[in-house]
């Protein structure tokens, strides 16, 4: 799942280097429109529904945080 999230992130923002410990939100790597695009792709790919209440920085600050969010929505 982590590999797929990285693939989707790379499609949304190919200029972000995901090899290090980048904080996607705190470091300003993802803007609001990027998050909207990312949410749409994640919803489609993983058959989940990321709602407005899930749109908090903690859920999108890292690849691991995104994976954790997806896993919680698949339960």
Give me the Rg, rounded: 11 Å
Q: Which percent band covers the strand fraction? A: under 5%
Question: In this structure, how is the largest beta sheet organized?
Answer: none
**Category from helices, strands and their pairing:** mainly alpha
Helix content range: 55-70%
Q: Give the integer mean of the pLDDT values.
A: 95
Q: Could you spell the SSE succession in H and E letters?
A: HHHH
* Count of DSSP strands: 0
The dominant shape is globular
The span between the termini is 15 Å
Parts with pLDDT < 50 across at least 5 consecutive residues = none
Can you describe this structure?
The protein has helices at 2-12, 32-46, 57-60, 63-74. The protein is an all-alpha fold and 75 residues long. α1 crosses α2 (32-46). The longest helix is centred in the middle third of the chain and has 15 residues, at 32-46. The model has no long low-confidence stretch (mean pLDDT 95).
Spell out the blueprint of helices and strands:
Elements: H1 2-12, H2 32-46, H3 57-60, H4 63-74
Short description:
The protein has 75 residues and is an all-alpha fold.
